[in-house]
Amino acid sequence: DNTNPLGLTHFLNVQFSPLTPPSGFSSYNGGEMNGTSKMMDFLEEPLPGVGTYEDFNTIDWVREKSRDRDRHREITSRSKESTWALIHSVSDAFSGWLLMLFIGLLAGSLAGLIDISAHWMTDLKEGVCLAGFWFNHEHCCWKSNTTFTDRDKCPEWKSWSQLIIGHGEGAFAYILNYLMYVIWALLFSLLAVLLVKGFAPYACGSGIPEIKTILSGFIIRGYLGKWTLIIKTITLVLAVSSGLSLGKEGPLVHVACCCGNILCHLFTKYRKNEAKRREVLSAAAAAGVSVAFGAPIGGVLFSLEEVSYYFPLKTLWRSFFAALVAAFTLRSINPFGNSRLVLFYVEFHMPWHLLELVPFILLGIFGGLWGAFFIRSNIAWCRRRKTTKLGKYPVLEVFVVTAITAILAFPNEYTRMSTSELISELFNDCGILDSSKLCEYVNDFNSTKGDDLPDRAAGPGVYTAMWQLALALIMKVFITIFTFGMKVPSGLFIPSMAVGAIAGRLLGVAMEQLAFYHHDWVIFSGWCSQGADCITPGLYAMVGAAACLGGVTRMTVSLVVIMFELTGGLEYIVPLMAAAMTSKWMADAIGREGIYDAHIRLNGYPFLEAKEEFSHKTLAMDVMRPRRNDPPLTVITQDSMTVEDVETIINETTYSGYPVVVSRESQRLVGFVLRRDLIISIENARKKQDGIVSTSIIYFTDHSPPLPPSFPSMLKLRSILDLSPFTVTDQTPMEIVVDIFRKLGLRQCLVTHNGKLLGIITKKDVLKHIAQLANQDPDSILFN
């Protein structure tokens, strides 16, 4: 019954004579009923706090799931008794879907808010709208009646130099604009890092490594709390607007998971059960990707492939629903004013030719190489930040990186614009009306048939753009290494895609010019006649973006789906698949881990990777504690230890649980009891149960052991004892033990020999063992 916070509602119907309370029971006067008073065993109903977890501990999936099944059985059996109970059971079944609806609405609204604010603040660095300062550049010029070619130069929008000195031409105006750009960038990033440092240290980074760890059953209190949500939403806008080389996509997953976690508190079923809550967080992660890329199905697949640890079918349907609601909400907010969910939506109409698979595979190889290089360099830099004095000055670090980024970015128009706009420009297919430098070809209008322009010779604008893009590529490649992992919210999807899109566009234009000047070569002769439009540079940019993103994150299926939902290019699934697969193979050949797994290992989170194979021939007895020369295992006997003995054990050790045995001599196993449950139960009994003193015997059996009547009353703690702890024999191969830990999500496993207790293996022991076999420092596993 969830109504009573103390949970002491069911009294034990044991009928004793009211005069002689038996040992182990306090006299509980529940009012005389039929001449007998009701007695109560203190721990028949769980106390508040029993069965909960400390911070930085791992949850016990087996225990949480069995609790949920018990709760479900109780509700089902009660629902036959009364109409009210039936309504309760229906509402309980419906609560999961209701929660998904709320998560979708909240995540979609926050994403819309972040998109609109970031768009406006990015434009604020260059100028301001006189019609209303809350308009960004694009919205400001909507009402203006300028011609299509001058659409960026409308009178309502003033650059800073026009506002301050009255004109926008000349060297002084350029320097003034440059200065304002750098000042705004520094202001935004400093505000972001100070907010993170002051209010929510957990709001920095992308959040996906931590969410993977949390979904695998680890507890990091406050990581998904309300402060983290508020600060992350505000600082994400600031960090993206400051022009740093980072994206908002990864952090949006963290924001959505915060929404999921906070909304879980509305429903008892999810508030009280950690395993159920993790199912909700898996679905929330899907909603996060859904709003980040406008890719609901890609989001569900991303959650399944990349972040989730336990993903039952029910969670798949719920993720689908949450992603749908989130995408629908964002679509109704319409943050970009183009009825699309993303900034870079493209439509290509030209089919690709089979021979183009060769450059696509080359892009895949480039993506894999860049991914592996990025992971190595970024991890090396983050390790240096952790181990040297650099980590003590997060504000200074952000200041310096922002200053360098802004100073290098302003002169080059492709780095000055926001990364999303850059990607959208690179994906774009040149039409007749395009005014961008990338589309300044030498026009020969005799052969134009409708909208499809033939391949043309590159004009001076294209060559300038190629130079600027090459410089932008070099800058992005190096600056992203230092940006990802700073103390501001930073996503990795957009910078990786930008690197790939630039490389792809450069290759695409090169191919196009090759086909234009050498259409009689063997490779082009069959399909590319003169005056035909055979190569689309924007498509190469799209494939390159997918390849680089795949190289960094090692996604495959979800990546391809996200890319074609993002760009609407259904006929380009094969090029995308070829590039994603090649980049994964290439990157895996150099280093096994993706960026998120590498960060999990760097931070020492206790995460058992489900994809890795365990191939060593070790046995359970090699891993268990105590080792040969260690002191014996700390155990509690089932009916011969006093309260004082148990409290001494608790104070002298730091273990999170203790095996219970029949006696010290026999060492036959009875069960397992958790430290936190013991502390709470003993404290509670001392306060509320008469006659419990330090010399009282604690017993875990059904019936109290026979003692002389003068003895103080005894404390029965059978209800907190886990009677079915997981055990293996000392000869069990470690590969089976590791599999049991992965598939069941265990915290610990007891080791027996001929039925006698020998030792214990915890999740940390397994992780340390794996690290030792991989020649890594085993102490790096302990979460720091």
UniProtKB/TrEMBL annotation:
PANTHER family in the cross-refs: CHLORIDE CHANNEL PROTEIN, H(+)_CL(-) EXCHANGE TRANSPORTER 5
Localization annotation: Cell membrane; Endosome membrane; Golgi apparatus membrane; Membrane
CBS domain segment(s): 624-688, 714-780
GO CC entries: early endosome; endosome membrane; Golgi membrane; plasma membrane; synaptic vesicle
Assembly and interaction partners: Interacts with NEDD4 and NEDD4L.
Keyword vocabulary terms for this entry: Antiport, ATP-binding, CBS domain, Cell membrane, Chloride, Endosome, Golgi apparatus, Ion transport, Membrane, Nucleotide-binding, Repeat, Transmembrane, Transmembrane helix, Transport, Ubl conjugation
Known function: Proton-coupled chloride transporter. Functions as antiport system and exchanges chloride ions against protons. Important for normal acidification of the endosome lumen. May play an important role in renal tubular function. The CLC channel family contains both chloride channels and proton-coupled anion transporters that exchange chloride or another anion for protons. The absence of conserved gating glutamate residues is typical for family members that function as channels.
Chain segments annotated as transmembrane: 94-114, 178-203, 224-246, 252-268, 280-304, 354-373, 393-410, 465-486, 492-511
SUPFAM superfamilies, sorted: CBS-domain pair, Clc chloride channel
Protein's recorded name: Chloride channel protein
Family in the record: Belongs to the chloride channel (TC 2.A.49) family. ClC-5/CLCN5 subfamily.
Entry keyword Ubl conjugation: yes
Gene Ontology MF terms: antiporter activity; ATP binding; voltage-gated chloride channel activity
Catalysed reaction, written as an equation: 2 chloride(in) + H(+)(out) = 2 chloride(out) + H(+)(in)
Lipid bilayer topology: Multi-pass membrane protein
Source organism of the structure: Anser cygnoides
